[in-house]
Write the structure tokens for this entry.
Amino acid sequence: MSSPRLRLEKSAFHDGIWTIDEQEARHLIKVRRCYSGSLVEGLLDGQKIQLRLICEGDTVRAEELSRLQEPLPRPEIHLLLALLKTDQFDLSLRLAAEIGVYKIHLLQCKRCVPQYGAGRVEDKMRRWRKILDEATKQAGATRAPLLSTPVPLSELDIAALPESRFAALLSENARPIKEAAFGDGVAIAIGPEGDWDPEESSLLLSRGFAPVSLGKRILRASTAVSAACSWFMLSADQ
Ligand code: SAH
């Protein structure tokens, strides 16, 4: 059984002692049933920190015992993800964070069911970042994937992506993903529930995305995210 994990971004550190933020403190005490002396693992952008809790009333502090740097997951996976309906989308975010995706580039595609205006996107981004952080606790990962604001495919900054680029396409020209050759970085694009619009698939191909197949079956977008990202992560030299 691994020790309970918490994120430390909102906690304060002074002289070897962490003062745990209210929300994480409540979770450790009420849900994880921790007490003074419990050993827990703190996650903080690239670092794993072993802690021993000191509980006094509602205040939870923690003595830092050791700190380890976590290497960056390889390959650096860039997931281009179309906006999906809430349940599918939340699940896709969680899966990407657990697998160790480096960055999620959100796409507002023509056939996306959700179409958020600028005002709502900010609220949504906050919620999505929270989902990613929660998933890192489940996975014991020190870093959450970076998340960029949704843009139409035509406005995506392609130059910022790795040179090995693939698009999951339900097309006869798509080659099996196991034939995809990639280096230290890889980009994979997954379309919305309504699939890519023909203009979008042509745009992907013209921008150097090789069409890949994830098998003969039509997968839900979240399953496609999991299958493709896991493939790249697990087939790289570990
Ligand atoms: N509604 C569409 C399916 C969309 S699936 C239909 O019924 O035909 C959503 C996305 O998952 C697709 O755009 C594609 O990127 C990916 N996908 C799903 N299954 C796939 C497969 N077998 N091979 C490649 N990509 C797949």
In short: The chain has a mean pLDDT of 95. Residues 168-170, 174, 190-191, 193-196, 213-215, 217-219, 221, 224 surround S-adenosyl-L-homocysteine (CB under 6 Å). The longest helix spans residues 118-139. The helical segments are 22-31, 86-99, 118-139, 198-206, 221-235.
